[in-house]
Every structure is written in C-alpha cells, then in structure tokens.
Write the structure tokens for this entry.
Amino acid sequence: MCKNNKPTEACNPLIAVYGIYKNEQTFIERFLKSVQTADQIVLCDTGSTDDTNIIINKFIKNNPDIKLKTIPIFVSPWRFDDARNTSLSLISPEIDICISLDIDEYLMDNWKEHLINQLQDGVTRYYHKFKTFWSDGSISEHWHERIHIRNGYTWKHPVHEVIEYRGSENIKRLPDFWIYQKPESKDSRHNYLSLLEQSVKERKNIWRSWSFLANEYLNTQRYNDALKAIDTALEINNSDKSFLFKQKYLVYKGQNKINLALLSLNNAIFHMPERRELYVEKAKYLSQLGRNTEAYFSILEAEKKTNKIIDYHYDSSAWDDAFNNCKKNIFEQAKKEGIIYE
C-alpha cells in the first residue's frame, strides 16, 4: 500500500466509511463530524421518518467538501446483513480501505493519519479497540474488526452480523486505534428475537448466535428457552465455555435459583480461572445474598488476578477505583458478620 508503511503523495490510500441508518437524529451530526475527512462516506437510509436527513443536508451545505452520498434503500424481509452489504456495494471501486460504522459510533481524533501510517501490504483486515460509554456510566472495552480492504468481504447473519472474507485473511492489530460508541441505553432499540431465531436456523454452528438468542430470551424471562440455547452453544466445539456458563448463571439468578446460579458461576471460573471479572461477579452476588464473609474471600481471590485483558470478558467495575470501592464495601459488611476483623 505504501512503502515502509508510510504514506507518500504517490501512494496515499483512499479510505471510505460506510453504514446504514434509520431515525438517528440524536447521533448523526456527531457521526458526520467524526468521519468527514474520509475520502468517501456512503450511508444507506433504511426508512428514516425523523429529522436525520434534514441534519445531513444541513451538514452537507455547511461542509461542501465532504464526500458524502446517502441512498434510500428498502430491505424486505429486513436483515442487517443485506442492508450492510448494499451499503458496502455502493462504495467506489477505487477505494482501498473501508470502515463500517453505526451512527451512534465515532472515530478517534486524527484517525485518518493514524490509520494510514499503520496500513500494510497484504493485510486484509485490521482489528482495533472499541470502547462503549453506556448511559448508566459504565464503560466496556474490547477488540473489534470493522476495518477491511474494499474487495472480498461480505456481511453474514440477519442480526449481530459478522463480516467474512472469501479468501485467506491476513489480520493486523492496531492497539492504539479506537472507535467509540455512546448509545442511548443498554436496552436494544430493536426487537432482535425473530432475526436471531432465523440466524440460528441458517447457521446452527455459530455459538455466539445462540448466546445472543439466549440473552433475548432472558430479557423476556423465557428462562427455559434461554437455557436450551445456552446448552446448544456449549455443545459447539469452539464456544467460549466460560462466557456461556456466566450467561447460565444470569438465567438462574433471574429465577432466584441460588445454588444453580453459584454452580454455573463456579463453572465459568473453572474455564477461565485467571480472570478477575468472574471472581468479582461472584463476590457481588454473594454479598447480595447476605453472605459477605464468602464474598470477601472471593474479592481477595480476585485481587490476585492482575492481568487486565481488554476483550468481551472485560468489566471496568473489576478494576482500579471501582474494584477498591467494591472490596471496601464488602469488607465492611463482612466485619458485621463477626468473622472478618481489621
């Protein structure tokens, strides 16, 4: 792409941002300000009825140099992968690198220069950091994979879609490249249940689809269906057993089945014994049950786990000041039980 991975005037790569939107008047201006230096921006409107397009047109008028095109599309039956593939297909063929974004997301400052300096010949996809600022004040971080070359990629799955390459992927990690998200709430803004049920019918061996389906069942208190979905996921060879047993713990917790909840949480710890987050979750749950001495010993065990890993298991409440406050509170409660002393 560029000699020695450094951009020159002769080989400066072209970067496009693409996505889909519907009724995003809350986020669209922030999104556009973030991506406006892209060489092309392609956004497909899937049926907006609010002021999103008014805001877009005003932004274009005030920023005439922005290379943005919006295209209304109609997808029926609705699927996120079909909508995203339509947006991707409308990117100009001369584009080198594509970034897929949702409208409630935005890019780090000086993202374009940073990315160009990291591009490398032969790499098909770039993994990057992704941070979500939730409305309740919590923060989650993990690796994501939204940056890819122009050709060869296709979105798959009706919802919670993933992008797949038709050949052999070559992936590079960008530990200092960030995409941020500030959604309105942790609650889904769509009913994904029917789409997830369709997803697992189409591809039965994707454990994460079963996990997402279980979460939807849990949200609607369909506990038995959630457990069946989790058990199906656990049978898939490459499934994350720790993540799934934690999910099973949440189902039993919702049913107030304390012993089964603790058993599931212990199974989650068994499959990932070196991670702090699970011990902290166990301490919090035991404390909620009034078993603060046990909770304190769990929090002490958590403290021994010092390797912070940023992935979908990461929980900011298990680290730094949040962890110290949790430990202090549990210690104070444990002292009242008369077994723990200063």
In short: Residues 198 and 315 are 30 Å apart (CA to CA). Residues 3-10 have pLDDT under 50 and may be disordered. The two ends are 62 Å apart (CA to CA).
